[in-house]
Amino acid sequence: MQFPRPMSESATFINIAHAIKQLGQGDYQGEVLPQDFATARYPEPVIAVRVPPSRRTLKRQYVISALILAMMHMLSLEQPTLLWSHYTLLWHGQEIGGLAFGIFSPPALLAGMAQNATSAQKRAEPKMNSDIVSQESNQAVATTSTTGVTNNRCSVAITYLGPGLEKTDLLSTLILVMAQAAVPPSSDRFANWVPDFLEGHTRFLASAAAQRTTPPYMTYYWLLDALEQTADYLVDHNRYGDVRMVINVDGRPIGQGLFRHR
Questions:
Q1: CB contact at 8 A, 45 and 5
Q2: Contacting residues for 257 by C-beta, under 8 A, at least 6 apart
Q3: What is the bridge-based pairing of β-strands 58-59 and 31-32?
Q4: Which of 20, 58, 147, 258 is deepest in the core (most CB within 10 A)?
Q5: What is the pLDDT of residue 235?
Q6: H-helix segments, the chain
Q7: pTM
Q8: Are 189 and 217 in contact, with CB atoms under 8 Å apart?
């Protein structure tokens, strides 16, 4: 059996964004089955959501919270490359699930190994409605990946406003914004929206097109779709800075979003 290789930072950001978009467009309070997330462009690292034998499902909000905690933990290590990881999710001291990031070759050899993984705990501060605790592990799990498909109703026009936001700051902020946008019902409309928990030196504002009086409207569903596409575009062009995104659905502008250095 071969050892997993280091993970691409760009691919990890994109696949986290994809996972949050897929999860966030559903019921935030609902349950999800064990599943894997990856995209067609970045089939690795696989992000695998698992549950212990005593459970069948896991709350969607816990998976989103765990994705954020995992991202922040990996970035806090300040390593030259991201390494595969396994995180155990705890609620009031009880294991409720697991989250694995990894590159596996061949995948079948590692399928189903999460339950037998040996781990050394590394605690993280509770965030975002859960007391999930992160742990590192020497083994992880992978099965068939979920391939990301861009919604062809939604498109985004990107305008660079100048230097300011560096790659890691911009992409991590974008993912934090997605996690916050996943909380309200995805069908809810809004006129202006600012996430309430952003830290550091970035800010984000989303606003609806003032002239829209008929569908499609600016909703969190379309905002999540547009944010994932924006992450894809930024990584594809390897260009970062202050950014405005204009969101179009069915060829009509419904709103915009702005990432800007404070």
A1: no
A2: 204, 205, 206, 207, 223, 226, 227, 230, 244, 245, 247
A3: antiparallel
A4: 20
A5: 93
A6: 9-24, 60-76, 167-181, 220-237
A7: 0.80
A8: yes
Q: Max alpha carbon distance in the chain (Å)?
A: 59
Give the pairing of strands 94-102 and 46-50: antiparallel
Per-residue pLDDT band at 148 (split at 50, 70, 90): very low
CA pair distance 127, 171, nearest whole angstrom: 19
- Token code pair at residue 174: 């974008």
- Which amino acid belongs to residue 199? E
Task: Tell the burial category of 62 from Cβ atoms under 10 Å away from its Cβ (0-12, 13-18, 19+).
Answer: buried
Question: Rounded CA gap, 58 and 52, in Å?
Answer: 10
The region, left, alpha or beta by phi > 0 then psi within -120 to 50, assigned to residue 128 is left
Whether the predicted pLDDT of 152 surpasses 70 = yes
User: Would residue 129 be called left, alpha or beta, if left means φ above 0 and alpha means ψ between -120 and 50 degrees?
Assistant: left
For 14-73, the pLDDT digits (tens) are 999 999 999 999 999 999 999 999 999 999 899 999 999 999 999 999 999 999 999 988
Angle (CA) 237-256-174 rounded to 5° is 55
Q: How far apart are CA 209 and CA 255, in angstroms?
A: 4
pLDDT at residue number 142:
24
- For 214, phi and psi rounded to 5 degrees? -135, 160
